[in-house]
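General statements about sequence and structure are easier to judge against a single worked case. No coordinates are needed to read the tokens, only the vocabulary itself. The sequence in question and its structure tokens are set out directly beneath this paragraph.
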Amino acid sequence: MDNKPLTPQEVADILKISKSTVYDLMKRRELNSYRVGKKLRVDMADVEKYKNKTKDPTSPSGSSETIKIPSSAAYEDHYFINNTFIISGQDVILDILCRYLNRHTAGIRALRSYEGSYNAVYALYQGEVQAATAHMWDGKTGAYNVPYIERMLPGTPAVIIRLASRMQGFYVARDNPKNIRGWNDLIRPDITLVNREKGSGTRILLDEHLRKMGISGKSIKGYAKEHQSHIAVASSVARGEADCGIGNEKACLQVQGIDFIPIQKEQYDMILKKEDMNQPAVDAIFSILRSDDFKLELQGMGGYDLTELGKIIAET
């Protein structure tokens, strides 16, 4: 028999199953695998062995439910034997949550994917992460997140959990020398904006307000200049590279030389697939979010309204 090494995709093609199922079989040790550098490989002999084993009605069926391994090829290098749970989002709340998860008795290995709201939810839909976070404002309804989740997860029941409420606003130079007060000021010829990247909740907020006002982003000086975080935007304003940026109040507290003009209170939520709600990692997340220790640590940082922390605010 030709015992050539196979990629997970080649195994999936042979067995007529999805690549994510191949990863799941590897994780449960039902299909032997090994690494060549950072890549996973399977010998053809082990594929035949697996096929023959499953023909035996007395063969054990496998194991208890496990969290699915991401199916995207980009995540092949992040395959772990232990329970792995990937959370996508950019707020420091998630760094703290992952620290608590990694110490939890459930034995979860928590990883981070640093994506903006839109890309995080899309990765959840694609099965590349197990949890996404978002703060996407819908200008038609005035609601956060739920309208987007309903559109972006078609046919996928989801649960939306409140993490925090935060104040969004303008970052301006100390004492606001350009007297920037509202959205209309952004179209003034003497104002230079520094923007967030496409897909971030802050960029969606700006674009939705511009749409409602009938204003093209191209008419705003600096609209095309993008940064990947609130801190980077605030720092750009502090250095005088722009007159105004948009972000949350917490980041403003971390950068010297700027003021914050509050504009709108936003909701920052976590999105999970309903099919995963009984997973050990999800149980651990709810336990942590609703614990006094976690809430007190966030309160000590400031900048968050934690009144509804851990509350299920919608199901789609």
Q: What stands out?
A: The mean pLDDT is 87.
